Amino acid sequence: MPPGGRPVPGGAGIPLRGKKVSPQRDVERDRPIARLITPEPDCLPRMSPEAPFVVASASMPEVLYRRLGREGAYRLPEIDRSEVIDGAYRLRSGALVLEEGRQELLGWPLGVLEKETAVQLTLFDRGGVIYGAFFGERLVGFMSLDSRPVCGMHDRLLLDTLHVDCNFRGRGIGCKLLEHARSIAREMGASSLYVSSKPTRRTVEFYLHRGFTVADEYDPEQLEHYPEDIPMVLAL
């Protein structure tokens, strides 16, 4: 659900061909999903969102997760958003339709970083939370949770942003940041999380694999700014 400058597959590269699929059937058929980067593993046990902690593995010595202050909004340029897009989802009559194709996104689209930074500063100033994942001193993951209720529901909060550096995907970082978002949202009194997901296949299926479903309604503000996104919701 990262806001701003969403790439719309189908503009360049191989033309997209649409086919209507059941989200569950498509997820089951394609597991593990063939892509440039392997899917992230299942979530580790939830820990307190206030305490930094370390995840160690043979492939990654350690990743530290911690809550950031307002200055965290200015660190987004450290994240390399590059990715290979191997298809995109569209909503057609309430059903997910997978449009196949292949494109390459390099870095941040022109003008998006400035807009994204402004959004994160506003989010933080009204009581939202920014979280980072660090490999040494390098920021490799970024998550923000808005305090503003969405869809007219006082107990539904917006997972505004979830980015993982392209060189660190497939290592559980996105999953761990999502766990922090869930924990913090519960502490803030939420019973569900809303995300305006980029329509790319990898992003939508990331959320589907972790229990999100297509929302029954759009948040008007998200729809206005990101009409191509897929609205998704997760019960907490």
Strand order of the largest sheet: 2-3-8-9-10-11-13-12
What is the overall pLDDT average? 80
Structural class: alpha+beta
User: With helices defined by DSSP (H or I, 4 residues minimum), what is the helix count?
Assistant: 5
Concise structural overview:
The protein is α+β, with helices and mostly antiparallel strands. It has helices at 23-29, 112-125, 173-187, 201-209, 220-225, and strands at residues 17-20, 53-55, 63-68, 83-85, 88-92, 95-100, 103-105, 129-135, 138-149, 156-164, 192-197, 213-214, 230-235.
What does this structure look like?
The protein is an alpha+beta fold and 236 residues long. The protein has a single domain, classed as Aminopeptidase. It has five helices and 13 strands. The protein has an eight-stranded mixed beta sheet, sandwiched between helices. The protein has a three-stranded antiparallel beta sheet with strand order 1-6-5, covered by helices on one side. The protein has a two-stranded antiparallel sheet with strand order 4-7. β8 and β9 form a beta hairpin. The N terminus is likely disordered.
